Amino acid sequence: MSQLALALIFIPVYILIYYLVGVAVSRIFKFENNPVHEIVYGMFAYGILFFVYVLPLKFKLVPVTTIGVIWAVFVVILCLLIVILLRKYIVSGIRDWLKSLRDRKMSVIVVSVFTAILTIFVEFFGRLPNGFNQVWFVGWVSTGVVNNELMTHDTVMGTALDKFNNDRYLCTFMDHSAVVCKLTGMHPMVEVRTVLTAVFILVQCIVVWELAKYFGNKDEKKTLVAFFVYWIFRILLVGSQLLPGYYTFFRTYEGKGFVMNAPVPLIALLLWRMYDHPEDKTLMWKGCLTMFGAMTYSLSMMFTAPFMLASYIPFILARKDKRLIRNMFAIGIIVVVFFMVYYLGRRGTIDLTIHRM
Questions:
Q1: Residue 129 — very low, low, confident or very high, per pLDDT cuts 50/70/90?
Q2: N or C end of the chain: which has fewer CB within 10 A?
Q3: Among 204, 265, 245, which residue's Cα sits nearest to residue 43?
Q4: Mutual orientation of helices 35-59 and 173-184 as an angle, nearest 10°?
């Protein structure tokens, strides 16, 4: 099968899996049954599931093929169970969502067209041709495919490493890409720079739309204005490699770029909504899910989150509601745990030595 065909197959496959996992998550945590939201939170939940599964196997140097076969069987069974057990819930959510789309046709058309144009532009014209950082993201996947081990070889020279990279080994989305490439024959460049690029842009646009809805206050025209003001501002700042716009157009597939453009603004939105509705406990669970899921893409979230949470303290003091403290603590404890694991790895307390036979 051609690489283009594999890419066109796996983009919707990813979205479908995220959606089905998101359906289960929304049912368990009593989130709103909205397919678009379920894609986003399902993506983070799926990343967490794979993180928990793959991390011990990576340390034990279990072959990628073995990891992949077991995971593929698990995902197929999981998705079938969700469809069978929650089919009425799925039908209800899709029906209500389609009805809501008919009520705001202009927004649906405009945002859909914008998302399609942005995706096509980035896929064909927005690639960074020779940036060194792409070596990390394509390289970890490539070495996983070639050596049938996850993150055990240098991404530049291809030589065997003595230790796992403390800055990277917790970012298991690259391990997932290696598994997909090993099982399907998809080239790592296609998986990382085509498939993940399309998926990341879609999730970015969904998050930006949710932000715009918050500022538009349910007014369709105001929401559209907010949506494009946000994107225009990002596009104007595309010239700096330290800002979100640069990562959207040139380094879309990188973990820190995704975190900067999706989980970070989503956490900000959830914190604002918590301030408005401190009684809504689902917002806390969404924040925890987003924070944990984001860590599996980039530990940059670990360094960004403390500043976001610290900036929320004045809002807590103004609101004087203990439930906001509970929410911030629940989200913050995830950051603390990841930071401690990272710190212990730096000190050598956690043994990152690669033990070969």
A1: low
A2: C
A3: 204
A4: 90
